[in-house]
Amino acid sequence: MKKNLPLAIFLFTQVVVLIFILATASSLPATVASHFNATGVADGYMPRDFYTVFMLIFTLAIPSFIVGSMTLIDRFPESSINLPNKRVWLSERYRESTFAYLRSHALGMGALIVLFMGYVHWLVIQANRQAPAHLSTEAILGGLVIFVIVLVGWGIALPLKFMQLPQERR
Predict the structure, then answer these.
(1) Which of 96, 91, 102, 79 is nearest to 159 (CA)?
(2) What is the tens place of the pLDDT at every residue in 30-47?
(3) Fewer CB within a 10 Å sphere, N or C end of the chain?
């Protein structure tokens, strides 16, 4: 089960956020304030149905592209794969575990993006409950800062894993 846990988390996250978007979209006005300037003032609008479809596609497409491309990485030519200690990590002995780690890493990143998109949708709902619509600058910046910190940490963890040579098991 541990091998499939990242995939289960990714799929669960997608399903929960997609259900959340579908369940809450009807609470939005017919014309949704969907874009906001730096001070939180609405400066872009779209019909509710279009907004809903846009959010569903965006929430599915970007994370699925990241996960899908990493799932296919073992089919890429080795020359296009950039890893520290590539000869070791792509050797026959470690190749399978290397690609499993990369897939797991991508699934976690995909789940993070899905959660962030769900948060953005929630903020849009909150913004549209006000007249005139207004997005909380503190809430979007706070969420964005957390997202970027985790993203940077995730991006640092990936090469650090491969900078270390594998520990031989006794």
Answers:
(1) 102
(2) 999 999 999 999 999 999
(3) C
Give mean pLDDT, residues 6-24. 96
111-126 residue pLDDT tens: 999 999 999 999 999 9
Closest by CA position to 123, among listed 110, 138, 113: 138
Could you count the other beta carbons within 10 Å of the beta carbon of residue 162?
20
- Contact assessment for residue 111 and residue 9, using Cβ atoms and an 8 Å cutoff: yes
Structure tokens at 157: 């963890």
For residues 45 and 42, what is the distance between their CA atoms, to the nearest angstrom?
Answer: 8
Average of pLDDT values for 100-114?
93
Average pLDDT, the chain: 92
Please state the domain extents for the chain.
2-163
- Between the alpha carbon of residue 107 and those of residues 67, 84, 104, the distances in Å are 6, 21, 5
Assigned token pair, 2? 């541990």
Count the neighbouring beta carbons within 10 Å of the beta carbon of residue 139. Answer: 16
